Amino acid sequence: MWAGLRLVTLTVIAVVGLCGAAASQSGVADFYRGKTVRILIGFGPGGSSSFYGEILARYMGRYLPGNPTMITQHMPGAGGLTVANYVNSRSPRDGTEFAITSRNAVFEPLLGNKNAMFDALKLNWIGNANIENSVCISWHTAPVKQAGDLLTTQFIGGGTGSDSLEVSIPKVLNQILNTKMKVITGYSSSVDILLAMEKGEVQGFCGIGWTYIKLRKADWLATNKINILFQMALTKHPDLPDVPLAQDLAITPDDRALIDFLLTPQDMGRPFFAPPEAPKERIAALREAFSKTLKDPDFLRDAEKAGVEIQFTSGEEVQSLLERIHKSPRELVERAMAVLR
In the chain, which stretches have pLDDT less than 70? Predict the structure, then answer.
C-alpha cells in the first residue's frame, strides 16, 4: 500500500514539475513574442565585437521562445566600460537587452577602477563566444621587428580605452621589463587602430585577435606587412609555436604570475551579459538560445565567412571563471593595481 502511495506521489510531483516548466516556457514565449531584443556592442562598427554581435542577432531569435526580432546597437567608449556601466544601471531589467564588451572591462572593478561602476559577479552572464588569443603586431615599416627590440626602441601602439588589453599589457611590460612602449588611446574599434597603423599614425597594435588577422588580413601575412612580436594568452596558439607569450618575456616567477593573472580574462574572450535582477526564467531562455545559436551550422558558416572564431562557453562557466578570478590572492591583485595605476 505504502509503495503504491509513494509511486502515486512521485508521479504527481513529476507531472506538476513538467507542467510548471511548460508554463514557464509558455510565459517566456508570450513575453518575447512581437518584441525587439537589442544586443549592445561596446565598440564601434567593423571590429571583432561588432561581427560577433551582428551574426548572433541574425540567428538567435530562432531559438528564443516567442522568436523576437533581434537588432544590434553600437555603444563605444572607455574600452568597453561605457556599455557595461549602461547595462548595469540603465538597461531594462526585463531581458530585452544584453551586451558584449571587452573581457578586460569586466576585470576592471576588481582592480579598483572607479570608472567601472558595476559588480561583474552580479551581472547575468549569457555566455562567451570565443577563447581569445591576442597578438602584439608592428607594421613592416616600424623599427620594432621582434619582442627584443622593445627593450631598446620606442614602440607606439594604438588603443581604445585606457583600461583595454592593448594598454594594460604594455603598461605592465614597461614597469617590469623597462620596455619602451607608448599607446595612443581614443580609437573606437580595432578597425580604426589597424587603419591608423596602415596610415603611419601608430606603429602597431598590441591587442588584436590572432584569428582576426589570420582570416581577415591574410594578405598582410602573405606579403610580410606585419611582424608578430608576442602573444597575449594563457597558452600559445597552435599556429604560432615560435612566437613568445607575454609571460615568456618575464624574468621572475612573480612577474610571470602577474601577467598570467592579467591575461586570465582571455578565456572569456567575447562575453555577453544581461543586467542584474532580470527574471531568472528569461535569463535561462537567453542562455539556452545562445548555446543553440553557437552550434547552428548556418551561424557557424557565417562566422567563418566573417573571420571570427567560435568556441562556446556557457554563462554558468563564465560566472565560475569570474568567481575564481575574484578569489585571487590579495597581494597579487594589489600588485596588479599598483602597476596599472
Answer: 1-24
For residue 161, report the phi and psi dihedrals to the nearest 5 degrees: -110, 170
Q: Which domains does the chain have, with CATH numbers?
A: 32-131+269-327 (3.40.190.150), 134-265 (3.40.190.10)
Q: Is the dihedral of CA 206, 209, 210, 215 positive or negative?
A: negative
pLDDT of residue 6: 53
Report residue 279: phi and psi, to 5°. -55, 135
pLDDT digits (tens, 9 = 90+) for 54-75: 999 999 999 999 999 999 999 9
pLDDT, one tens digit per residue, over 127-165 is 999 988 999 999 999 999 999 999 999 999 999 887 788
Mean pLDDT, the chain, integer: 91
Model pLDDT, residue 306: 84
Cell 547595462 -> residue: 87
Q: In angstroms, rounded to a whole number, what is the distance separating the alpha carbons of residues 201 and 208? A: 17
The angle subtended at Cα 91 by Cα 85 and Cα 95, nearest 5°, is 130
State the CB neighbour count (10 A cutoff) for residue 195.
15
pLDDT for 24 equals: 63
Q: Measuring CA to CA, how many Å separate 269 from each of 107, 129, 132?
A: 12, 7, 5
**CB-based contacts of 131: which residues, under 8 Å, 6+ apart?**
266, 267, 268, 269, 311, 313
The torsion angle over the Cα atoms of residues 267, 268, 269 and 273, rounded to 10 degrees, is 180
Q: How far apart are CA 84 and CA 237, in angstroms?
A: 29
What's the whole-model pTM score?
A: 0.81
User: Which letter, b or e, does each residue of 71-80 get, where b requires 16 or more Cβ atoms within 10 Å of its Cβ?
Assistant: ebebbbbbbb
Task: Say how many C-beta atoms besides its own lie within 10 A of residue 17's C-beta.
Answer: 10
Alpha helices in 33-164 (DSSP H): 48-59, 81-89, 103-107
